[in-house]
Amino acid sequence: MATQEKVIKVINLVKKFGSFVANDHLTFDVFRGEIFGFLGANGAGKTTAIRILCGLSYPTSGEVTIDGLDIYRQREQIKKRIGYMSQRFSLYDDLTLGENIRFYAGVYGLSREDIRQRTAALVDKLELHAIEKKLIRELPPGWKQKLAFSVATIHQPGIVFLDEPTSGVDPITRRQFWEMIYDKAGEGMTVFVTTHYMDEAEYCGRVSIMSEGKIHALDTPAQLISKYNVRNMDEVFLRIARNIEAV
Amino acid sequence: MRTVLLIIQKEFIQVFRNRMMLPLIFVVPIIQLLIIVHAATFEVKDARICVVDHDLSTTSRKLVSTFEASPFFQVLGYSADYKEAEKLIRANKADLILSIQAGFEKQLLRERYGQVHLSINAINQQAAGVIQAYSMMIIRDYNRQLIVDWIGRSTPAQARMIPVEYAYWFNPELSYINFMVPGILVLLVTIIGLLLSAMNIVREKEIGTIEQINVTPIHKYQFIAGKLIPFWILALLELAFGLTLGKFLFDIPMVGSLWIIFMTAAEYLLVVLSYGLFLSTVTNTQQQAMFLAFFSMMIFLLMSGLFTPVESMPAWAQEFNRINPIAYFIRIMRMVLLKGSGVSDILKPFLSLGVMALTTLLLTVWRYRKTV
Q1: Which of A54, A201, B80, B105 is positioned for an S-S bond with B57, CB 3.0–4.6 A?
Q2: Sign of dihedral through CA atoms B236, B242, B245, B250?
Q3: Which of A57, A90, A91 is closest, CB to CB, to B371?
Q4: A108:B216 CB<8 A
Q5: pLDDT in tens, A162-176
Q6: Domain residue limits, chain A
Q7: How high is the ipTM of this complex?
Q8: What is the mean pLDDT of residues B131-155?
Q9: Which domains are present in chain B?
């Protein structure tokens, strides 16, 4: 689904916490409709970057535009067009799924009728009839994660940012989760996803590999595998890590 | 507007779904009202006297029995030795020593002059003050009685005395409860309001939902309004509930207009709740928020004149109460409920509260950050 239209433009993004440089001159573009993987080990600076892109944190310097809107001056407009699923579970666990949807969808200005229809469609699609009226906290973790994704995209944003959406989830649920991501991408949604699972990298259209605040590689998984002459993304990552050490 | 309503709806669902919340909101106040009103009394009953009577005359015995007859005192025992009596005070078994010198009666008859000595345990200076005042009254009355008995009614000394009659306005029976209950009600809505609001936003920080809120296009003022209004309604209901209890349990007077009470409460609660939400925005854990809430509540409460008269505080403390919302609200509550003060009487404190409400509210909206 990827087009040539740049929906996220990042030029020389720097974020410092005191003397610690979390993001060191990041430069990359994301095209509309693609699944963009933001890879790196824990502590590489992925979450810092995604928070800046979502308007949750200010960059120290650099230019960032999201859907043509400037991150410094138009954050609130940007927020209407994006969805975000944080690393921490973010549905209200003392509310039911319906109540969560009604709240979040309402906040994005969806009409009551729209909310009703989308809730019904979601319930049908994921076969949630049995758990629709249960409180979120009564549901198994795998379900919670999928529901969090559904709620984060309930307002059909142009871009969705997912921060480690599959961490701590069993392999089957991870698989189902990626099917949901593909579904959304199929509808034309741009997906920006961070992960430290290298096997997930192969589900992405393009990936960037980050370490110690810098981007060390950015390409399609197939290109990277052939460039480093290895068998899979795991080995690509190891090769890059070794190069960094060698330097 | 719809966004604000959505947040209010969500908060109400969460409050009522929390099993601890309803008892917390309605049972705790009842207990508080029933207990604190009695515990915080300044009245002294049955102060324990140890008598050291070295005179052992009719006059000295009569003086002791006058003390005994008073409901405020209870004669614990007699001691021949002042040192022994002192031990009782040190052991906290007696509250005062009444010591009468040998030759008290003789001196009184011969020189028309006598002396008794009072030693009061002043660990609790307030109680000591009350005991001293009561003792003085008893001794003075006894003294007058002696004059009448010995010299006769028509003496110039008796005629010269100026009779003083007291009229206690607004609380004619000097009922301690009438004075305390309005203040306790303030305490009650303050605790509920401050704790609920201070713990609220920071709780969303702890569970992580705040981040999801912050990536939505919710405006800061919408968020604060949506968080504030539910607790505002709850606390006003709480006040209505407390006033009803006060009426039925203690039959407190309600001379003035309840409208004024609720208008003031509405304004006062804006100060309390936005301050609570402010604490919630500057802290990272519920523990920190709770600590700050209690810390500031203690200071504002103890300075406010709920338990101690503001008039007897040092000047700087009285000045401090200009920025103490609790002091204003307690004053208005007492003025309106006991005196029936009208709008014009309370206008000044009412406006001061208004200024505070606006300031804290703006401060909170400004301080709330949608970024980490």
Answers
A1: B105
A2: negative
A3: A57
A4: yes
A5: 999 988 888 888 999
A6: 6-92+158-246
A7: 0.89
A8: 79
A9: 2-40+175-367 (no CATH), 47-160 (3.40.1710.10)
